[in-house]
Amino acid sequence: MDLLAHLAAYVTVCEERNFSRAAERLGIAQPLLSRRIKTLEQHFGGELFDRTRRQIETSNLGVLLLPHAKDVLSRAEHLRDLARSARETAVRAIGVPPDCEPAALARVIRAGAEHGIVVSIQELPADVRAARLDDGSLAFAVLRLPPETAPLGVPLGLASAETLATTARGRPVHLEDLRPRRGADHGPRPAVLISPEDAPFAADRLRKAAARAGLPEDRIRTTSSTATALAETLAGNGMLLCTEQFARRHQVSWVPLADATLHRGYELAAAPSRHGAGVPPDWLATLLAAALGTTTRAASNAPAAGHTDDARAQLAARG
User: Fold this and answer.
1) How many angstroms separate the CA atoms of 316 and 307, rounded?
2) Domain 156-178+189-262 CATH class label
């Protein structure tokens, strides 16, 4: 027996003093209402209404139980309100790459508050983001995809503390450009450093492309963390594969890679719900696109340095 439904039928009949009006108020058929009252009477072991009179009257047992029935229904409604409030104000954990733009992530947090959502940003490795989205630990996550098929593309380039931008003169750099020129000093050359965000996706591609370009295998090196890779770059020991906004934030020169297959590909995904895969809200997708530094696949592989975060957000929204 659904006790709450049966108690609601009982209380409504008491208030309306008419089975037809009570059934209409509850939105159920009158025979169903009558069966619920009968079942409740069997459950309590006595009649709740005096049916010997023309007008329905509550029996002595019914009068005794009525305030308690109303209290049970009130407490049940209070529980539903609490659950609804908890759902609406629950923290939404969002998994993002470790090198997103902090100011753009701050805009995500503020926008969440404006939409009545408490946002928790979690910087996590790509494989951890995917695993925690699957197990429900994250509400949304930025997932890596091959750049050829990803809805969001993030141009990657090489950041250097010194000479790379001068050598490339601001144009997209090909790996062939990293070979020593004739007559140049053939001493140790800085390695191309790959951070953990790109290691599972770009390392093999970059090594193959480097081999085709005639670069020694030791010129490509995977690092243990983004901070370590940046430190070696600032020390002049390497060229970091990274986004333009990351290089700009840390005040190192940057030129885009000409080979778009070495860029990043992303999608924003939601944790599965009881009714299937969820859909991230448009405002969140747009702001996270800006935090990632994305362009659309139709955009140039080497966006102009003057692009702002807002411009990137507009491109992502149109894509």
Assistant:
1) 13
2) alpha beta
